[in-house]
Write a structure and sequence with these properties.
The protein has 108 residues and is mainly α. It is built from three helices and no strands. The chain has a domain of 62 residues. Helix content is 51%, strand content 0%. It is flat, with a radius of gyration of 26 Å.
């Protein structure tokens, strides 16, 4: 809003007349692509282990709430996912490099 525009200059949309939902549905239905949802962490198999963590790490996660073990698991999953993606990218680069060497030179 500019300095000359006040919030009182606007009339709020009423939900009862459906204008707000109609505007929202038409603007977002086409512009926002659908995203695939990842499987919930609870659905994955979980193994209980004893793990030595530094006091700093433990205090950080415990200070954020009672579900600290879930958040430690989520943080570790992020690291694993990045590592797996990085390794897949390396393998793809290596495959591309070796397939380029195998191609015969163009006759010309």
């Amino acid at each position: 809003m500019s300095s000359s525009t006040k919030s009182s200059d606007f009339e709020p949309l009423s939900v009862s007349d459906g204008a707000a939902t109609e505007l929202f549905a038409s603007s977002t239905a086409e512009s926002v692509p659908a995203r695939r949802r990842k499987a919930a962490a609870e659905a994955e198999a979980v193994t209980v282990v004893t793990l030595a963590l530094s006091n700093r790490v433990l205090e950080y996660f415990q200070g954020e709430g009672d579900d600290w073990q879930v958040r430690v698991n989520e943080a570790l999953n992020l690291i694993v996912n990045r590592h797996v993606a990085r390794e897949a990218k390396k393998r793809a680069r290596l495959r591309a490099r070796t397939s380029a060497r195998r191609r015969p030179a163009a006759a010309g």
